[in-house]
Design brief:
- The protein has 166 residues and is an alpha+beta fold.
- It has a 7-stranded antiparallel beta sheet with strand order 1-7-6-5-4-3-2, with helices on one face.
- Helix 2 crosses helix 4.
- It is built from 4 helices and 7 strands; from the N terminus they run βααββββββαα.
Length: 166
């Protein structure tokens, strides 16, 4: 199969943007700290259990999202492989399950841009392997879950700073 990430195609893309009332070095640092990631990452109602956290270019973060569904605990295994990390600017990763042949793996690019007022514009771009896969993940709520994740990041940052953005 051809490399689905060799070119960027808008019909396979999901873009989430959040303006965060914290300077970009703090927002970026929240992504680089494995303990912090496990506290804020993921949709509302799901806990993160880190299995392996090597947050560096070439490293991986393997974790389970854990939650109660239909009266029983369910686990969703996840793997992020960090391809590029430019401090305070950009993180590029492949995201999927721990299966090395995961056909639904997608590429994520997170950028951190600081406004003149010190707030950070965080942009998270996902590139899915096919248009159909993009439609599927939108259908099950991936956009809402992604926004919940970014809200979790803001809440975590606010808690670390006592609500102050310094």
């Amino acid at each position: 199969m051809a490399d689905p990430f060799g070119s960027w195609s808008l019909d396979r893309e999901i873009v989430l943007v959040k303006v965060i009332n914290h300077p970009r070095h703090r927002v970026f640092a929240a992504w680089m700290d494995p303990d912090a990631l496990a506290q804020w990452y993921g949709p509302t109602g799901l806990a993160i259990e880190s299995i392996e956290a090597d947050i560096r270019e070439g490293g991986v973060w393997r974790f389970d999202m854990v939650g109660m569904f239909e009266g029983r605990e369910q686990r969703f295994p996840n793997l992020m492989r960090f391809l590029e990390i430019v401090p305070n600017e950009r993180i590029v990763m492949d995201y999927g399950t721990p299966d090395p042949e995961d056909p639904d793996r997608f590429r994520v690019t997170v950028t951190f841009d600081e406004q003149s007022d010190g707030k950070t514009v965080l942009t998270m771009r996902q590139l899915h392997p096919t248009r159909a896969r993009r439609q599927f993940v939108i259908g099950f709520g991936a956009v809402e879950y992604g926004l919940q994740t970014l809200d979790g990041l803001v809440a975590w940052l606010d808690g670390q700073m006592g609500g102050a953005a310094g």
